[in-house]
Amino acid sequence: MGTATSPSFDTETLRRGIEGQTPETLLSLYADDAELRVVNRNAQPSHPKVLHGRNEIADMLLDVYSRDMTHKLEGCVIQGDRAAYSESCEYADGVRVLSESMITLRDGKISRQILIEAWDE
After folding, report:
1. What confidence tens digit (pLDDT) does each residue in 30-81 have?
2. Among 30, 89, 117, 121, which residue is least crowded by beta carbons within 10 Å?
């Protein structure tokens, strides 16, 4: 009798989506019922911005990756059904953004994500 394994998270798709600025590629990594919580200067920890489902997440990804900026995946660590990754971004005017994400995986897809952003001010 064989052992069942769950699909693994595709870090190469993550890299291609982030660095190629293709929101459709990134969206393919999310479960249909995914939840994304964003914490930044406008959505503080006591009142994070919470997005439910692929449609709401798609709107955010389309907005972010349509901006005149570069994105780089700095690192990704996976352990079991959890993963974390760092992304650095830079706008054309030199403003930098750093984001850290902690994700929960289900069947190789992102089911929950907490994203924390810090911006140059």
Report:
1. 999 999 999 999 999 999 999 999 999 999 999 999 999 999 999 999 999 9
2. 121
What's this model's pTM, rounded to 2 decimal places?
0.90
Position 15, amino acid: R
| Pairing, β 49-52 against β 69-79 | unpaired
b/e string for 75-92 if b means 16 or more Cβ within 10 A? ebeeeeeebebebebeee
φ, ψ for residue 67 (rounded to 5)? -75, 155
Compute, in degrees rounded to 10, the torsion defined by CA atoms 73, 26, 38, 56: 170
Which residues on adjacent β-strands are paired with residue 51?
A: 36
Cβ-based burial of 14 (10 A; exposed 0-12, middle 13-18, buried ≥19): buried
Quick one: which H or E segment has residue 13?
helix 11-19
